[in-house]
Amino acid sequence: MGIKQNSIVTMHYSIRDNEKKLLETTYNSTPLQFMVGIGLFLPSIEARIMGMNHGEKAFFIIPPGDGYGKKDKNLIIKIPIEELPDGNIKVGSTLWRGSAKGDRTSFTVTGFLDKWVFLDGNHPWAGMELHYEVEILRVSRNTLLQHLKI
Question: Domain for residue 141, yes or no?
Fold first, then answer.
């Protein structure tokens, strides 16, 4: 049975950058199990695994436009260092900042200079071509959805 909308899929995957640096993998841990179509993966990933069957492997590249987008320079900011929360904040730390609307955005600390700290609100993989390897371990129907006729 090939993967289709609402299938329950169990798979291993690895993601690498253009230099082949490993960004994320499940091969050395528990495989990922998810329902297709609920937004766990980028739509471009789900589109590439549609129709695949148990035991199949695939390799594909996701360009920035189909992944996490281009880096947005407007999401790179500097703030006074005294605005940092107390604690051990260093380059690579993740901070959450609120907006006047009440939204919260995740920022990565990218550097310090004098009394300033530089933060990047882009996804860490923004602007990157992502190299995926997937191995489909199991594909099953979502019997609950079938029973409910959804």
Answer: yes
